[in-house]
Amino acid sequence: MALMITDECINCDVCEPACPNHAISMGAEYYQIDPAKCTECVGHFDEPQCVTLCPVACIPVNPAHVETRETLMQKYERLTAAPAA
């Protein structure tokens, strides 16, 4: 399951540097999460760092991108694989 940031975001800048996959960036009005890069920190941490650090609890699971832990691990492995020479 990829995460998403709701419009309750206060743009506190805490989540973006905490994301090990660089899936979080500033959108038009508030931060957004790229579901193609979000692994909910699987492979990096036990818990999603953005959710842990968010002071307003505005980062729920994105219902449009439901994934199993196994799928998230596969995504993590793709994202962290060394490029072919």
From TrEMBL:
- Mind listing the GO molecular function terms for this protein? 4 iron, 4 sulfur cluster binding; metal ion binding
Kindly indicate whether the keyword 4Fe-4S belongs to this entry.
yes
Do you know which Pfam families this protein is assigned to?
Fer4_7
User: Where does the 4Fe-4S ferredoxin-type domain lie?
Assistant: 1-29
Cofactor dependency: [4Fe-4S] cluster
Cited InterPro entries: 4Fe4S_Fe-S-bd, 4Fe4S_Fe_S_CS, PSI_iron-sulfur_center, YfhL-like
Q: Does the keyword field hold Isomerase? A: no
Q: What are the record keywords, sorted?
A: 4Fe-4S, Electron transport, Iron, Iron-sulfur, Metal-binding, Transport
Q: Name one GO cellular component term.
A: cytoplasm
Sorted alphabetically, which NCBIfam families does this protein's record hold? di_4Fe-4S_YfhL
This protein is called what? Answer: Ferredoxin
Native source organism of the sequence: Roseateles puraquae
